[in-house]
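Annex B. Sample input.
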Amino acid sequence: MRNIILYIIILTAGVLCSCEKEIDVKLQGAAKKYVIEAVVTDKAGGCRVLISQTKDFNEDNTPITVSGARVQIGTGDSSVMLVENTPGVYESSALKGIPGTTYNLQVNIESETFTARSTMPSLVKMDSLYITEEMFFGDKYKLPTISYMDPVGALNFYRFMVYVNGTKKKQIFAFNDELTDGNRNATRLFVDVDQDDVEDEEKIKTGDLVKVEMLTIDAPIYKYFFSLENSATGDSNSATPANPVSNIQGGALGYFSVHTLQSMEVRVP
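Annex B, continued. Sample output.
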């Protein structure tokens, strides 16, 4: 889970003295916010909501889970109350998403209420997964490549998640079909390319088991992950990174994504 904490710290100090003096500067962190990561898929057991709180930049990375929330998801006709099975994790085995249906999320935490809505798009079939090799910056990379036929005449949005030997890669892959509407796509996922914090032994290599999940998502979720990716990589026109464009109302960070889900695996040759 990614905790998104933005800080603007302005330190103004004017010290004129003839001797050295220790100065204790107390930094003020940003106000803490709730983070809601809510998902409904078209698979049984695919309904889960994670609730946490942001932390100050000088705290450790252990997430602050939020227990005791009241979480419900439904359509205009009915809703399902989610159960907190582990601290901060709310689930329902009864809720399975249906393409074309809009779902509403409501989260109550003490006196605060957060709401969101998301519509499940139609399934776009994932046809195949294979590995291609490309050279970048003098290094050779093995790239997961997904083949699928984009439906003609509709604006579609996709998100891909990559797992190597069971470990999820942190990179964000979100695409639309503005330039590929109605085409057969061979989408390469540039895993580990231009990632300074990835060691050579962590890159995809022969013998690895690569799993790719393909999600068809709606427009607000595409905007969220696209803006999150730009914020993480610094590809933004703003001097100060901004929070991702959330579809959650009420002041919480995070997202509510209702999407179809498929996956394939391949052993790297």
